[in-house]
Amino acid sequence: MRTKPLLFTALAAIFRGVAAASEPSSTAWCFIGCQLAVAGITFGGSPSLLVEGYYAYNCQNELLVHSTYACTKKYCHDEKQWEAGLNYMEKTCEEQSFTLLDGNVDAIANVDLAKVVVVETGDLTQYNSTAIASDDTFTIAYRTIDEWYSQRQYHQWYSKAMYIFWGIVLALGVGANFASWITSRKVSLPNVPEDSSVPRKGPANKIWTAIRTHILLPATFSKSCSQSKLGATLPPRAETLIILSFIIINVVLCAVSYTAFPGNAYYAQTNLQTWRYFADRTGYLSYANLSIFFAFGIRNNILIWLTGWEYPVFNRFHRWVARVSTLEAVLHSIGYTAFSFTFGGYADYSASFKQEYWYTGVIATTAMSLVLVFSIMFLRIRWYDFFLVLHIVLSIVTLVNLFYHTKIFNGEYNGFLWPCVAFWAFDRAVRIARVCFHWAFAATLKAPLEYDTEGNILRIDVTNVFSRIAPQGGAYYFLYSPFTLFGWENHPFTLVRWQESSSPSLPGSPVIDNEKTPDEKVPQNTTIAPISSTPSTRYTFLIRPYKGYTSKLAHKMSKTTNKTFLYEGPYGHTPDLSTYTDILLLIGGSGISVGISAIYTALATNPTARISLVWASRKAALIDSVLARELKCAVETGRVHVNAHITRSSDAHIRAENLTEKIETVRPSVKERIGEAERESAGRLAVVACGPAGMMDDARKAFVEVLPVARGQMELFNEAFFW
Which stretches are transmembrane (predicted)? Predict the structure, then answer.
């Protein structure tokens, strides 16, 4: 006996589309198997398949419907299967404005199987009475339905696994952030006992130190984390482990749970079945990952606040999830291409391009792939504005075409797509709101520009701009130049909050009794004057001109000393240094923007901490300039120890009259500085690092090496430049 159901191949092709429209429970699969089995039998009567169409035929043709009931009674022995099947078929008919004929359990129970004709596979006779398929035909039909819907369940379960995975990762981040917040609330320097420098050697502390040393803090391999290798960077080890786990899970879920068998009623060839299941699986996973990388890629991300992770962390997750999603989209396209060629050859493949779902899928996959290509680090750094515009345009093209790609499923997959639109729209709305807030409340939008040619530093003084607002020093703002050809371009710069030296005492500095001698220690109950936006408080963007936007700003100095900006922010934050006994700042070049804000914040909130600034720069003129202005007031407090390193020997002869510390002409040994700071620490050491990639990697590596042997507590605040 032939097991290949040749008679109902055409009907099965139609039925596949109907079966995909809604998801029946597994209890209904036997009933649906009967529908598929009797679909191979030719029935007379009205309505007919060819005249009235598929739904009228399946819902109203008495012979077909009663034959389905007879098959159900013979092969489905549980009345729950009957009820589930009837409910599913009734719903399907109602969605198409039809009523299922005799849609009740009694209609099945009253069937007299003795009067029913059994039709063998291959019988082309037209029947004008109730008939059912043979055992072999039903077995094939039921197994086909079982595998079809089992595959769809796998697709859906595995898609949900993406959300479960990231839900677990984020839950761990939120929990750790909450625990850190609780711990920080318990730490208060004025109440630290005299023996606070004695390290805790308990098992829990040792385990936590080992986790930080070997998992959370180090680079993935060696020391390279911020530095580019082969045109790319690797994130810290903990992030790499998360990303690698995510990739492995996706690879495994794309490769498992496929069952193909000869004679399948939909696709008789096993390779056809495998290609179809694989194409659907990768399509599901690609769709599931879409909303995840959209959520991770926005600036105004509530997850940043919940987890305490910086934007670069989520941006790296965004990139890797996007890469996986794009690769799955490509595999989805390859799978359907192979399926089409195997099913009908080149003729079937070329004809597919006339179908909307097909060519919109091709456009979407191509757009996603182009985003991936143009997002490589080399292009991002050199043509950032071009990359940004192209990124947005191609993302919109992708989403629009994906809506059309799955339109044939009547919105079944829109649940994957609308969150992407929502995340993007929310982020844009908040960004516009931030700009409008500063526009509405700023005293002026014009800011004076000053370009220091010797130090190669551009200053944008926004003190008057923020005179009515309490801006956040150390955070970064995106600056727009609205009255330019490309007014939508925006670039992030760190806002520096500093004090002018004309102030007799630094707000936030210890209020010291004049009768005390300089050698006396500041008492633990020293009062702190809160920082307020007084005339002595200044707000400045310190910018190192490079190619592109910043170079244009420096060039503007030849034409005007004032420029109108729009401001979007604040983003990020200044490290909380209020509970540390010692603070070491490792700064390279223009990273001093972070260092200045951190220093003044520490002076204002931490009355006893010893602050050491190690600053390396190619140009002594830059150090001279900043020490004479932004850092002068901080240095005059006597609490900030500055050690400057000029890394270009030709500039070593330059000195600043106000500089009391020695300038060294060699690069600082980051490891020695951290080790020295740890040995001299009175209890809790904070290391703040901001500078070029090499310096940041050195700081990370040195910190990880010192951490296991540290006597007290140590914390690394890695404020790396990020592309």
Answer: 161-182, 241-261, 284-306, 358-379, 386-404
